[in-house]
Amino acid sequence: MSSAGNRLRHKHYRLNPAKIKRAQRVLGANTETETIDRALDAVIAEDERNRLAYKANERFLKSDIEIRDVYGNLEQ
């Protein structure tokens, strides 16, 4: 990434303080800014995991692998 894309900017948002405090505890952040930054990192990481899982699933489905029930019809 270029350094121009990493510049910090001052932004002003109207956010629910209870949500910020709860997220702060969950994320172990010291400040509200750190909380929001960590939350954004978590969302970005989750999106990447979801995209990778989707791609892996697509490859699996296209592989024509045969799936067998190794336990058979066990009676319960």
Note the beta-strand portion: under 5%
- Largest sheet, strands/sense/barrel: none
What is the chain-wise order of helices and strands? Answer: HH
End-to-end Cα distance, whole Å, is 56 Å
**Count of alpha/pi helices:** 2
Provide the descriptors you would attach to this structure in a database record.
76 residues; mainly alpha; 55% helix; elongated
Structure description:
The N and C termini lie far apart (56 Å). The protein is mostly helical. It has a domain at 14-62. Helix 1 (17-27) crosses helix 2. The chain has helices at 17-27, 32-62. It is elongated and about 60 Å long.
List the helices and strands and how they pair.
Elements: H1 17-27, H2 32-62
Helix pairs in contact: 1-2
In short:
This protein is an all-alpha fold. 55% of the residues lie in helices and 0% in strands.
